[in-house]
Amino acid sequence: MNLDDIRIEIDEIDAQIVELYKKRMSAVSSVLEYKKQNNLPVLDKGRERKLLCRLSELAGDEFSADIIRLYSLIMEQSRAYQKRNININSQIIGKIENALSHTPPLFPEKATVAVQGTEGAYAQSACDKLFALPNIMYLKTFEDVFKAIDCGMCKYGILPIENNTAGSVNKVYDLMMSHNFYIVRSIRVKIDHMLLTKKGTPLRNIREIVSHEQALNQCSKFLNEHKDIKVTVFENTAKAAEYVAKSERNDLAAIASENCCEIYSLSPIERNIQNSDNNFTRFICISKDLEIYTGATKSSMMMTLPHKPGSLYSILSKFYIHNVNIAKLESRPLAGKGFEFMFYFDIDAPIIAENTKRLINELSLELDYFLYLGSYTEII
């Protein structure tokens, strides 16, 4: 047989497989009717386990693992089909539909906004880009921002979540696990770091540089070129600049934004010291209430997975099945849980699309812990 003949044979086999799949799903529909009449759950783990064992034996050693993977996916599709046809919707879908109906068409121009740090912080720049006239409340820590939202002291909060050169802001991800909030907007801000000192202080006199951990990481090349200078981590870049301005020392410098020059009467002795000129930090805007504004094309969620082989594979296959692109996947260890993790997903998919809502619905119904964090537009 030549290649064309072999491909014709494969096409014929594939057509038979499709017909058999349709026939199987028809039988599944009959199973569903029985389950509905007898008030039985969709998932029958015992039945699935026995089926996989039997099919593995039929496949033989060579194809056993392949058949297990294939039928695990088929059974997952079967469960999803059954849930769609009995119209089981989680509470999350109800909240999403309500938010889509009741959120105002335009993002607000004025609001009281919680920001970590002080005047001149990069989070302030993000806030000013998102809101035309924000009433900014500066707070000491990232957790204070979450608390301000939770207690209603501020309507919105701004938090850094990742930098394209220094990576994720792990402290924020860890705090996400213990606070109630929704993401209503995100924005990417170009970050240009300056080395700021009191006026008249040359670089050769600097003995200590202060800044936020992320800023220090983003300027690691510059710092490695000046290893004789002590590096001290501060809670915020603007706070570091304020510290230098108020200090009586003349051997201090801060890594901060250009805005801090005028605010704290400092001089930039080195400009653009970040590792890359293409240096962006992504900030999220959070709220206590779920708000979904027109045009939301990104969604975020957190979940824990069963601690067994194939759990992550099974979840990732759902995104593939529903044709939903994963823009970010982050994992953080769960405190006191050994080697168990919380998984954070960002997806690129319009929330009004039915496949997006079906994906969120399936995940929320099947997982023991699933948290929908909101759908929003990202400003670039």
What would you say this structure looks like, in words?
- This protein is of the alpha/beta class and 380 residues long.
- Among the domains are: 3-85, Up-down Bundle (Chorismate Mutase Domain, subunit A), CATH 1.20.59; 90-104 and 294-380, Alpha-Beta Plaits; 194-270, D-Maltodextrin-Binding Protein, domain 2.
- The protein is built from twelve helices and 15 strands.
- The chain has helices at 3-37, 45-85, 91-102, 122-130, 142-150, 170-176, 213-218, 220-224, 237-246, 259-264, 311-321, 354-366; strands at 110-116, 133-139, 156-163, 167-168, 182-190, 194-198, 208-212, 230-234, 252-256, 266-270, 280-287, 298-304, 325-333, 341-348, 369-379.
- The radius of gyration is 27 Å and the shape is elongated.
- The model has no long low-confidence stretch (mean pLDDT 91).
CATH architecture of the domain at 90-104 and 294-380: 2-Layer Sandwich
Mean pLDDT: 91
Oligomer: single chain
Low-confidence regions: none
Largest sheet: 10 strands, mixed
Structural class: alpha/beta
**What Rg, in angstroms, do the CA atoms define?**
27 Å
**Can you count the helices?**
12
Percent helix range: 40-55%
By CATH, the superfamily of the domain at 90-104 and 294-380 comes out as: ACT domain
CATH topology of the domain at 90-104 and 294-380: Alpha-Beta Plaits
Binned strand content: 25-35%
**CATH classification class of the domain at 90-104 and 294-380:** Alpha Beta
Write down how many β-strands occur, each being a DSSP E stretch of 2 or more residues: 15
Could you give the order of the helices and strands? HHHEHEHEEHEEEHHEHEHEEEHEEHE
